[in-house]
C-alpha cells in the first residue's frame, strides 16, 4: 500500500471488474435456463435421440427374428429333404409359402413400430 491510498483504489477497481464479470456470467446462465426456445430445442434433440435409439433396437430385433425364422425354415427343409426327393412339388410350395409368410410378417412388424 502506498501512503496516498492509490493501492486501495486499484484493488477496489479490480474487485469491481471481477464482480461485473461474475455477474455477467451468472446472468447468461440464468437467461439460458429461462429461454423457452432453447428448452424446446433441447427437449426435441433428446426426443430425436430416443426415437433413433428405439428405431435401431427395433430394427435389430426384427432382423434377429427374421434370421431365426429363416434358420428354422432351412432346418425344417433339410429335415424334409428325403420326402422332397420322392414328391418335390408339394414340399417346395409349402417351403416357399413359409418363407413368404416370414418375410411378410417381418415387413408388417417393421412398419408398425
What is the distance, rounded to the nearest whole angstrom, between the alpha carbons of the first and last residues?
75 Å
The helix fraction, in percent, is: over 70%
User: Strand content of the residues, in percent?
Assistant: under 5%
- How many helical stretches? 4
**Count of β-strands:** 0
Query: Given the helix and strand composition, which structural class is it?
Result: mainly alpha
Mass-distribution shape: rod-shaped
Largest sheet: none
Query: Which residue ranges are poorly predicted, with pLDDT under 50 across at least 5 consecutive positions?
Result: none
Helix-strand pattern, N to C?
HHHH
- Please state the average pLDDT score: 84
Kindly provide the radius of gyration, computed on alpha-carbon positions and rounded to a whole number of angstroms.
35 Å
Pfam families: DUF3618
Transmembrane segments: 89-108
Keywords: Membrane, Transmembrane, Transmembrane helix
Protein name: DUF3618 domain-containing protein
Care to describe what's here?
The chain has 113 residues and is mainly alpha-helical. Helices cover 92% and strands 0% of the residues. The protein has helices at 6-34, 36-79, 81-86, 88-112. α2 (36-79) runs antiparallel to α4. The longest helix is centred in the middle third of the chain and has 44 residues, at 36-79. It starts with 5 loop residues before the first helix and ends with a helix. The model has no long low-confidence stretch (mean pLDDT 84). This is DUF3618 domain-containing protein. Keywords: Membrane, Transmembrane, Transmembrane helix. InterPro entries: DUF3618.
Amino acid at each position: 500500500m502506498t501512503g496516498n491510498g492509490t493501492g486501495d483504489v486499484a484493488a477496489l477497481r479490480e474487485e469491481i471488474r471481477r464482480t461485473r464479470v461474475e455477474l455477467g456470467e451468472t446472468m447468461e446462465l440464468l437467461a439460458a435456463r429461462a429461454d423457452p426456445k432453447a428448452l424446446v430445442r433441447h427437449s426435441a434433440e433428446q426426443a430425436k435421440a430416443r426415437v433413433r435409439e428405439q428405431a435401431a433396437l427395433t430394427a435389430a430385433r426384427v432382423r434377429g427374428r427374421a434370421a431365426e425364422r429363416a434358420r428354422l425354415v432351412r432346418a425344417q427343409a433339410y429335415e424334409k429333404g428325403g420326402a422332397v426327393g420322392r414328391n418335390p412339388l408339394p414340399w417346395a410350395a409349402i417351403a416357399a409359402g413359409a418363407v413368404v409368410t416370414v418375410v411378410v410378417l417381418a415387413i408388417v412388424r417393421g412398419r408398425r413400430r
